[in-house]
TrEMBL record, chains A, B:
The keyword Lyase does not apply. This is Mannose-1-phosphate guanylyltransferase. It comes from the Bacteria. The lineage of its organism: Bacteria, Bacillati, Actinomycetota, Actinomycetes, Micrococcales. One of its GO terms (molecular function) is nucleotidyltransferase activity. Residues 316-362 form the MannoseP isomerase/GMP-like beta-helix domain. Residues 10-293 form the Nucleotidyl transferase domain. Keywords: Nucleotidyltransferase, Transferase. PANTHER family: MANNOSE-1-PHOSPHATE GUANYLYLTRANSFERASE.
């Protein structure tokens, strides 16, 4: 069991819908509210349970949309009111994590925050805790720290982090500097990265002193920083918060934290990385969900859905069933079938990435009622 | 336009469910009640419309199950009460067609009947009529006459009829004797048949004097014949029909008319054939339905369903939609998706024949509620 880290605060941005998992994930039922692993809990709840031993139940904040407040509080009965940070509309990760940093920094200028996505899957609790403990040690030295996952295959679905020299920090034997971030590569490049061993998957985890993160944001995105600081100043005053959100939030720049903070910090030698030796997946599409549930067994059919009444014959891939209909899959290989009350998707594991395009087409063609 | 043939009576056996088209076709919505061609009419109605110019509206009988009476009368508002022959349970085609022959023979000993399936698709009205007119001419000479379809491809899904010598009948220049019936062949054999030109597809159409058909039945299946004659004697008496059906019908032998009448008649040189130069398909499974709707264009997606809200991207095959759900097919080739309120089937054109096995499995596993 991990000991609670006293100056640590966990932040869970719970914002993305998970468009590539449509029609399972949608605006009113985003990915983080689903149980995609059969654990019996939502991904959000699993994330909370993973962080509670490190931060304690009173020091985990969730940044989410107003529409999801009730669902989030339902999943996390232990969350304090003051730890639910509501966005009036989505403004991407720099605004979401930056808001949490600004609020928590106001409450405690020395706080170290760690941001962890609400909808990733992690297996291996102890090694996860060990990675976070190391990251916090390095963050205390003024670094922004990310946790990178040593690749186990030449994935073209993730971004990569290139490690540079090791840095010597007590209690963080695996710490290294980050040379640069790399966008999703092609397959040949991914194979080189796998062989090279100095490339890690970018799992979107950031640990830093709130003050350091805000400094970096101020240097790179001064307007965004100013807006967030102004918002944070009003936040803990009941009367001021609402008007401040309405005035400031819609004007904040939409930018990913990778671009607003992490990449510039890497260039300045201020970004460190700890390798995370746990199983990690962002479950970005039905291909990765299939792999996750079948444990990579190619001929298996993964079935997700408690009410599923299924009859299959020589089928493989994934079936997600949210209705009580009888479903029969006959002779279909690597198939993806997602059966919900008002929408049905049939595709293949190979084409799983194209589901996002479907969602965009539905928007354009006026069928947004099922998004 | 054809002239009505005065001594001709059309018989439409409307019995089969069409299990290979599950979950579109089912016990309470058999294939013949569906519009599979986009004509705006059920296959049953199309069959009626094809026969009416030849027989006249008062001389078309339908043999169907009690459960389908209302649906049949709904589709065929012009049908006379006396022309609806209700089976208390299915007993296969020899009993169904034999019953019609026995009843109509009692009403008119000289009648020539022609039996045509309720759920086949035919294109080419004039050539159809010309084939029936020739068949009636040959039937007047005491033959049992079938209409065979010249193959256009080496089909392994149909039975075949091997032609023998021509026979000389006035008004029937294409008449020939039948040497034998052949069960569904393998592909190599089907290719030989296609090249040979003396093999025709067995389209299950029989034209004969009712008296001749009954004689043949008496010779081959005397018990079945006796039961049908007894039933026919009671049929047109309101008080007698019900008890006679209850007593006799359930004990009648289940046998196809091909075995009970046509094959033995062929051996005795009493079976003739007229080639039918029209497009014909029994639409036995989703592969043939796909071909029918796409006119064989391999890269097309056939969509059947007035309420379909469909979004596809590089998909081919067939989608049958009976719900108002949004359906998205992405990158799936030669797919078969059948979306109904209580059951969903996903298979491929290649595996279409295996759908019947699904239906049997559903029976066995206690999910007969969706059959």
């Amino acid at each position: 069991m991990a000991h609670v880290i006293p100056d640590f605060y966990a932040v869970i941005p719970a914002g993305g819908i998970g468009s590539r998992l449509w029609p399972l994930s949608r605006a009113d039922a985003p990915k983080f509210l689903h149980d995609l692993t059969g654990s019996g809990h939502s991904l959000l709840r699993d994330t909370w349970d993973r962080l509670e031993p490190l931060a304690g139940p009173d020091r985990i904040a969730v940044v989410t949309g107003r529409a999801h407040r009730a669902a989030v509080e339902g999943e996390l009965p232990g969350i304090a009111d003051a730890n639910v940070f509501l966005e009036s509309e989505p403004r991407e990760s720099a605004a979401a994590i930056g808001l949490a940093a600004a609020i928590l920094h106001r409450r405690d200028p020395e706080v170290i925050i760690g941001s962890f996505s609400a909808d990733h899957v992690i297996r291996g609790t102890q090694v996860f805790e060990w990675a976070v403990q190391q990251a916090v040690q390095v963050a205390r030295q003024g670094y922004i720290v990310t946790i990178g996952i040593p690749p186990t295959e030449p994935s073209v679905g993730f971004g990569y982090i290139k490690k540079a020299d090791e840095i010597v920090v007590d209690g963080a034997p695996e710490a290294a500097l980050v040379e640069r971030f790399v966008e999703k590569p092609d397959l040949d490049t991914a194979k080189e990265y796998l062989a090279d061993r100095s490339y890690l998957w970018n799992a979107g985890m950031f640990i830093a002193k709130a003050s350091v993160l805000l400094e970096e944001l101020a240097a790179n995105e001064p307007e965004l920083h100013a807006g967030l600081v102004e918002l944070a100043a009003a936040w803990d005053d009941r009367d001021l918060r609402g008007p401040a959100v309405d005035r400031i939030w819609p004007r904040l720049k939409k930018i990913a934290i990778d671009y607003a903070v992490a990449e510039p910090a890497a260039e300045r030698g201020r970004l460190a990385v700890i390798p995370g030796h746990f199983d990690w997946d962002d479950v970005g599409d039905f291909a990765s969900l299939t792999k996750l549930i079948t444990h990579g067994r190619k001929n298996d059919l993964a079935v997700l859905g408690p009410k599923a009444r299924v009859l299959t014959d020589a089928a493989s891939g994934i079936l997600v069933s949210q209705t009580s209909r009888v479903i029969s899959l006959v002779g279909v290989k690597d198939i993806v079938v997602v059966d919900t009350e008002d929408a049905l998707l049939v595709t293949t594991v190979e084409h799983a990435q194209r589901v996002k395009g479907v969602v965009e087409s539905l928007k354009v063609t006026g069928r947004g009622d099922v998004l």
